[in-house]
Amino acid sequence: MEKHKRRLITSALPYVNNIPHLGNLIQVLSADVFARFCRIRGYETLYVCGTDEYGTATETRALQEGITPQELCDHYNAIHTEIYDWFTIAFDRFGRTSTPRQTEIVQDIFSKADAAGYIVEREIDQLFCHSCDRFLADRFVNGICPHCGYEDARGDQCEHCGKLLDPTELSHPKCGVCGSEPELRSTKHLYLDLPGVLPLLESWIDKASVEGFWARNAVQMTKSWIRDGLKERCITRDLKWGIPVPKEGYEGKVFYVWFDAPIGYISISANHTDDWESWWKNPDEVELFQFIGKDNIPFHTVIFPSSLLASGDNWTLLHHMSSTEYLNYENGKFSKSKGIGVFGTDARDTGIPADVWRFYIYYNRPEKADAQFTWADFQEKVNGELIGNLGNLVNRTISFINRFYDSSVPEGAADAEFLSEVKEREAEVTLHLERAELRDGLRKIFALSSFGNRTFQAGEPWKSRKEQPEAAAGLIRSLAYLIRDLGIMIEPYLPGTSRRILGFFGINEIAWDQLGIFTGLDSVGKAEILFDKLEDETIAVLRDKFSGTQDDRKLEAAKDSKEMEMEMEESIIVQPQEVSAGIRFNETADLRAARITAVERHPEADKLYIETLDVGESEPRTIVSGLVPFYSEDELLGRTIILVYNLKPAKLRGVKSNGMLLAASRNGADGGKEEVEVLFADWAEPGQRISVGDLEIPAEDRKRITVDTFFSIPLSVSDHEVKVDNLSLSAAGKSIRTARISHGDVG
């Protein structure tokens, strides 16, 4: 094989303070498939991951449990390691972020970015506790929720009604550590100047997103962030558990976890090899592949690369981003905080082999849309595909060779048409895996197995071995080589199953370039059943066992035991059921019709307009949008658009933007220029509120939200209709529709 670039692979660092569920495991498992493929394909490969350990959540959890943050991290890091070992994930290094090397590298990147002028200082108001002598992070404040009156709401979100909060909104706020009443004080924090880094970032993104064939959702979300204007991002926090800020006047402050966490990929590599810079500072010879969930996209395509670019060093930046949608659980959502779903320890304790879980997660991987884990589908896919397809082909062929050819692979002329079809399909699998299209790759492998089963059935070797013995021998020989190839191709996905299949032929070492080479097989071992069928009774027991939450299960297990009294003494909070995305959007985002009364070019930005809006109030509003490449001033003037009315104001290149207009977007044909279409509602009166399906518009004004909060609930266009969670948006009883873009994202 010709010389290729080395491949550096990361999966999203799992947060340390809980046990990962199947939805979390998708990323480490996905990167594992790709890393295994790269190794047997012949690439020099480094796959790193580790626990993300600093931050408010860790410090809060440690205080609640009466232990140090380090003790908490040590405990959960061991649990994570055990789970990933059981799932046979082949990291080159599984590390952690609470290491001296992490501190060294984070502080170095910060200091270089600061020296280059990309770090700015800002003053904000924050609650301060006299007793603890510290400013309080959001989660260290408790009080009365202004929305529902819940008396123990947390400073970032009310656990009772689910509303997002600012600590200063709470009535009668109390320090979550000592219970004292804090006061509001001014404090200084440091911000990464994303608008300043933007020219470097855009130049890199324009090239990397195309050459690295980023996932569609990664491209769309990144472009939405940039199109609507980046703003300075706070990178410091008032905490004790974190990396100290090496700057005078910032003693006692640490770096915000989302500044330091992605740098963990680098420090974990540095703890693995002293030659780490040959991986991370070598873009000419190394390609970086990152596997994450869609909620982490902006941090990997904007925040992390901006931090590296700001330092001025020659970093290996993202080449390919494989970002998945959400895996939901039985028509609800997996939730670590609420203990809902099947967790890594649960999967292990079912007695179902790791390869069976790996198969279903990959077969059902949410690559382009949200996917559901249901016990019924799990049973159907395992019994139908893993057992009825692959397991059946292997068992019937090996058994036939055992019985009728004395376990020797028969000599015979292979069917040239059959072998040609096999090679063509194998090339398709290779292409999918090269592009990290893991679900499509696995499904093509199983389609090839199904092709083998059909060929076996059509050839009727139980008859032809007597009537046409040469044809029967050729068929069985061809199927033996197909099974050998399937054993190689499933190694990245199902390593244990691969070893068993290849073990029938006495094969211990494999390489991807052995595919399609039909020589070298002489005999087979005794056939064995690869998988046990999942019976209805087993699935019914598991469905019942893993209903409710982890806390529910703990209580059930503790009944009639001496542990019950101890369990009841713990402060177990019963979490409310998660509402649907449509309801959350309706309660969170305040969308209103707004008429554009003036349009002018931004004096400091070539791609930005400044629009003046009539929103049915006494004073007009001003917003900034990145529509210059897509619309002229005349095409916008006088039109009625959809405004995110309750978006927190943000300064974009010096101009305050009081909201954001909505537009649909999609990639151009054949990878061409992005298409953008503003959502117009010219029939609506300025200020008229936008409806979500048949949901009632909240009577009270919704609180101000950040752009991150808004984008956490995706809008889309389907058949020209604008929807959220399959609920159509409408103004004055008329659906909001696009004219040109039939399918796409909205932001």
Number of helices: 24
Percentage of β-strand residues: 15-25%
Shape: globular
Q: Give the beta-strand count.
A: 32
Structural class category: alpha+beta
Task: Give the distance, in angstroms, between the N- and C-terminal Cα atoms.
Answer: 43 Å
Give the C-alpha Rg: 28 Å
- Average pLDDT rating: 88
Uncertain regions: pLDDT < 50 for 5+ in a row? 549-578
Q: Biggest β-sheet, characterized?
A: 8 strands, antiparallel
Helical content band? 25-40%
Explain what you see.
The protein is an alpha+beta fold and 747 residues long. 39% of the residues lie in helices and 19% in strands. It has 24 helices and 32 strands. Strands 25, 26, 27, 28, 29, 30, 31 and 32 form an eight-stranded antiparallel sheet that branches. Strands 3-2-1-13-14 form a five-stranded parallel sheet, sandwiched between helices. It has a five-stranded antiparallel sheet with strand order 20-19-18-21-24. Helix 14 (416-434) runs antiparallel to helix 15. The longest helix is centred in the middle third of the chain and has 30 residues, at 375-404. The radius of gyration is 28 Å and the shape is globular. The model is unreliable at 549-578 (pLDDT under 50).
